[in-house]
Automatic annotation (TrEMBL):
Region (Disordered): 512-533
Domain of life per record: Eukaryota
Subcellular location: Membrane
Descriptive protein name: Major facilitator superfamily (MFS) profile domain-containing protein
InterPro entries associated with the record: MFS_dom (IPR020846), MFS_sugar_transport-like (IPR005828), MFS_trans_sf (IPR036259)
Keywords for this protein: Membrane, Transmembrane, Transmembrane helix
Amino acid sequence: MALTADGVFEIIGSFGRYQLFILILFNIIEWFWFGWPIMLMTFIAAEPAWRCISNNTECSLDGNMKPGGNNYDFRCNISRNSWEFVDDFTSVVTQASLHLETRFDLVCDKAIYGTISSSLIFFGGIVSALLIGSLADKFGRKILVFTFGFAIALFSLLSAFPNVYWLFALFRFIIGFSIDPSLPLGSTSFSAGGGMSFFVLITELVGVRHRSLMGTSLWYCWTLSLIALAGVAYLVRDWRMLCIVTGAPAIVIVFGWFFTPESLRWLLVKGKMDEAEKLYRKIARVNGKELPEEALNIDTGNDAKSRLGDFRDLFKTKSLTKTTLISCFCWFVNAMVYYGVFLSAPSIGGNMYLNFFLASVVELPAIPGGIWIYNRFGRKRGVIVPMLLAAAGAAGAVLLTTDDESNKGFLAGKIILSMIWAKFWIMISYDGVYIYSSELFPTVVRNVGMSTSLGCARFGSFLSPYVIFLGRVHPLLPYGIFATMALIAGFLCMLLPETRFKPTLENIDQTIQEGSTGAEEKDDEELSPGTDEKKAFFPNTECYLSTV
């Protein structure tokens, strides 16, 4: 009897020395650096406060004017030599230092360009997914991981040198085109860049029972990279040098080519049996296992006649339509709030480096805390309650925002605490929605359902800089929007069923019944013709953070 690919891993080692080496290697040479180009704009696109030049008759305002303040736009009506930018914590910002805003003079009527440059990295991910979403299927995971990874490193470095805004913006778009901004999901049809190909590749090298370990380790590495970025940005105040310092380490990815194998499942599906056998034997040898000859008689699933659904099938039944729309909205909101909290670090008061650090470090307890919540209280409550608590934190930031100049430091501290509270719970909700959505969609449409949800998350990420920009209109708007959207998403999730301990749905005519232990089947219908996809070899994305 032929074994499955996962069955072979149980023989040669589901997670042994070989997989541990690959995990450490990948985390060091690639994953750790992925967060830097995405979040870098938090610092280099932050608009500094300004103040009137001493003894100037045209400008006589006292103190520093910050974005969203009552007098912040006053400078747009006076001459440029009447005011100057202020570094919140050191000295006056010159044309060549610290902020992108000052280098390209992105102020007043040009202020939106800074926000555009922040959103372009997310927009690049959207375009990449639409144009090259199936390249990983055709050419393999390895070539995409290193091609796009090298592009990320190269254009991160080149971003330091443009003297015109449009060229800098183009480089940011190319970086976004090469990296995935809604990490990490092993979805195939809406994801092709270095990040997703990397995630799929690394999860395909372990057995199914260790994919949760791989997924969790990647989240921790992502969080540690953001914590490190806060320190690097604090030490390197020149924006050009910051681009170089954060881009240069990623060059080490080229050395990983010589140690990285191709995906076993991809080799099997493509019929490259000799290469697959060599890799199986190498894994077995490093793990200290024996590989029997009969274990190489592997069922690749190529002869399976089951059909996979397409996008239209997500709306074939009322139940599935509801699941699709709510799932998409939840992903959209989680991504928008998650990235929005980071991007708000310079504008909520206090030290923006400390704000960013706190927003990052709070993820460390949120990751294991989320896993415990999903398994103890279920997927549904594990998404709803954290989302509502995140909404409460965002609402707290709104309620604490005031124009009162007294006790500004105390108020800023409470606002930052509310921000950290919101960030902690939105992290748990964001992790949970990965698991919850994968269990809600039936097998035949799970891939396209998760891909569609990921697409909605991309748009949420893309819009987050513009939500933060609304703080110039009124300081209450950004977190007011976050609170409202998270509240709506939390209540909408109440319309969905619990999935913990429920069998996986197989076809689109099954529905999960609340309070039951299984899926109730209705009359099966044949999927529409032409929906067959050759993606059965992709790892199941279900519950990679779950220990159930």
